[in-house]
Amino acid sequence: MNNVSSFSRFDNGPMSAHGHVARTIGIDIMAGTYRPGQRLSHETELLAQFGVSRTVLREAIKTLAAKGLVAARARTGTVVTPPEQWNMFDADVLSWKTAQGMDQQFHGDLTEIRLALESRAAALAARHRDDGDLAEMRAAIDLMRSATGSRRQFAEADLAFHQAIARASGNVLLRSMSAVIETALVASFTMSSPIHDMALHELNVSSHERIVDAIEARSEEDAAAAMLSVIKGLAHWRDLSDRD
């Protein structure tokens, strides 16, 4: 996944007509405008609201259904499904969740899933990595170190780093979980950033560098431990930012 296009998903930039409709309704669902079990507005109302064709609207509804947010019910119409049926590992669903705000519980959930997945990815990367993988990780580290004036640039470099590790793991399922990483990093780059504190910035970069060192040394245990340290450090920093 290209890290620049990944972040553009959160910018609310140009998108297809049906993508815009799906995103708007999806955010409304997550914000509680539509409650589980509630029927979506009548097709005529939605057509007037968005000013799109019936074909575009129906394509948007199909997109929402494929992501588990709505379901067609006989004699009822299209209704919102319970949150447990939503595909929270879908990149768009996660971006919509970010757009309507993430509470402490969701931040905690993200941290827990990252601790489980990324520590394992780092260990597998130590086992399977090649020189090309290491070069990608080192290049991302260099970009993180030079990103002292832009939170976005720092977050994009950070994302590229974690995606390089996921690719190096050799596990296709771990690679596909990068949307979780992406969402966590987007959330962090919208808050106070370590780039505004040079000592904290260098500490953050160095902690990522230790992951690469362990992967290069093919030390699975050290790579996993270094990754856990980075993720826990981000969670701690976020908690401190929330208190300010």
TrEMBL record:
Residues 15-83 form the HTH gntR-type domain. The keyword DNA-binding applies. It comes from the Bacteria. Gene3D superfamilies: GntR ligand-binding domain-like, Winged helix-like DNA-binding domain superfamily/Winged helix DNA-binding domain. SUPFAM superfamilies: GntR ligand-binding domain-like (SSF48008), Winged helix' DNA-binding domain (SSF46785). The keyword Transport does not apply. PROSITE patterns: HTH_GNTR. Keywords: DNA-binding, Transcription, Transcription regulation. This is FadR family transcriptional regulator. InterPro entries: GntR_C (IPR011711), TF_FadR/GntR_C (IPR008920), Tscrpt_reg_HTH_GntR (IPR000524), WH-like_DNA-bd_sf (IPR036388), WH_DNA-bd_sf (IPR036390).
